């Protein structure tokens, strides 16, 4: 008896390396923050930056020490286009 199993598609797709359209629409402080960051970090932060830009009301709060312990979220206490960084 031969069994064939379907191989599921990968959960994560390869991350794009450039964000030309998104970068043009990001506030200057967001663009400056992304300079020199690795692709994984950019992939983690970009959805939050995009959410902030889409709403156009609040900035982004990034807290933690980087890597898996870092969190980012749109924060009502941060003015739009600005980033607040806190390290516990």
Brief synopsis:
The chain is of the alpha+beta class and 88 residues long.
Keywords:
3-stranded mixed sheet, alpha+beta, single chain, 3 strands, 88 residues, 3 helices, 22% strand
User: What share of residues are in beta strands?
Assistant: 15-25%
Helix content: 25-40%
Tally of contiguous helical segments? 3
Describe the oligomeric state of these chains in a short phrase: single chain
First-to-last CA distance: 58 Å
Low-confidence spans: 7-17
Tally of distinct domains = 1
How is this structure best described in words?
The protein is about 35% helix and about 20% strand. The protein has helices at about 20-25, 30-35, 40-55, and strands at about 60-65, 70-80, 85. The protein has 3 helices and 3 strands. The chain is α+β, with helices and mostly antiparallel strands. Strands 2-1-3 form a 3-stranded mixed beta sheet, covered by helices on one side. The protein has one domain (about 20-85). Mean pLDDT is about 80; it is low at about 5-15. A hairpin with a 7-residue loop joins β1 and β2.
């Amino acid at each position: 008896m031969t069994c064939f199993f379907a191989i599921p598609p990968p959960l994560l797709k390869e991350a794009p390396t450039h964000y030309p359209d998104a970068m043009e629409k990001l506030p200057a402080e967001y663009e400056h923050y992304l300079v020199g960051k690795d692709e994984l970090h950019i992939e983690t932060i970009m959805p939050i930056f995009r959410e902030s830009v889409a709403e156009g009301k609040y900035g982004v709060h990034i807290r933690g020490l980087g890597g898996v312990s870092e969190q980012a979220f749109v924060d009502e206490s941060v003015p739009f286009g600005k980033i607040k960084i806190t390290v516990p």
